[in-house]
Amino acid sequence: MANRAKQRRLEANLTQSGLAARAQVSLGTLKQFERTGKSSLEFLIAIAFALGAEKEFEGLFPPKPHRSIEDVISKPVRIRGRRK
């Protein structure tokens, strides 16, 4: 993921400091991310927005496909998870 983000940065003709400023993250954190691939989710989202790649997150939790129309009709809409 870090390699793809770096590639997007280079395609956008941004320096590391330019991207860090645009994403409002520290330059050191960005350098570490590009070197190791480790980051927080918050950091990753900030970088994605700065690179115009926020749409890439839409595929993370796609809705589960229904097997039949009866599944759609008979299954109630859940608002909360079950308590344990």
Q: Nutshell version of this structure?
A:
With 84 residues, the protein is an all-alpha fold.
Helical content, roughly? 40-55%
Provide the CATH topology.
434 Repressor (Amino-terminal Domain)
Main sheet: strands, sense, barrel: none
Helix and strand string, N-terminal first? HHHHH
Number of H/I helices: 5
Class by SSE composition: mainly alpha
CATH top-level class = Mainly Alpha
The proportion of strand residues reads under 5%
Structurally, the number of domains stands at 1
Q: CATH homologous superfamily name?
A: lambda repressor-like DNA-binding domains
Low-confidence stretches: none
Q: Could you report the average pLDDT, rounded to the nearest whole number?
A: 89
Rg calc: 19 Å
How many DSSP E strands?
0
CATH architecture designation:
Orthogonal Bundle
Shape: elongated
